Amino acid sequence: MRAGAESARSSLDVAVSRARFDNGDRIPNAVERVASAGLTLLDRAAFSGGLRVRYLGEAPLIEDNSARSDATTIFNAQLSYQATPAITLRTEVFNLFDANDNDITYFYMSLLQGEPASGVDDFHIHPVEPRSVRLGIRWRL
């Protein structure tokens, strides 16, 4: 490790909200609690790594709060190796624990073939991406 170099870094961001319309109704998809935290270890015998967590709390999906989304928690990790002063190898793992959560949830009426002509109120989701790995190399000229 270089003299005077930083060996670890951490971060934490938290937000809490109480979003309402003027009449007191909830604002659809206004997430009430959000947090992001991370820990990064630097210059450990040519290795560096980090772990980050992202939390999105529940949210009302319609104004009367009778339909709500579930909370989502995702962990991501990365590891780097300084092979030479000019070459760095990097591995990143997204959704480290392969969480089966939703990135976004909506609640609205839809009409599919075979359903009543009046439609059906239902949850519509976009799931988080499954665990994935990205490999990279950086070459400084």
TrEMBL record:
Pfam families in the cross-refs: TonB_dep_Rec_b-barrel
Q: Where found? A: Cell outer membrane
> What are the record's GO terms for cellular component?
cell outer membrane
Which Gene Ontology BP terms does the record give? iron ion transport
Q: Which UniProt keywords apply?
A: Cell outer membrane, Ion transport, Iron, Iron transport, Membrane, TonB box, Transmembrane, Transmembrane beta strand, Transport
Gene3D superfamilies per UniProt: TonB-dependent receptor, beta-barrel domain (2.40.170.20)
Q: Where is the TonB-dependent receptor-like beta-barrel domain?
A: 18-96
Per UniProt, what is the membrane topology?
A: Multi-pass membrane protein
Task: Tell me which InterPro entries the record gives.
Answer: Beta-barrel_TonB, Beta-barrel_TonB_sf, TonB-dep_rcpt-like
Q: What is this protein called?
A: TonB-dependent receptor-like beta-barrel domain-containing protein
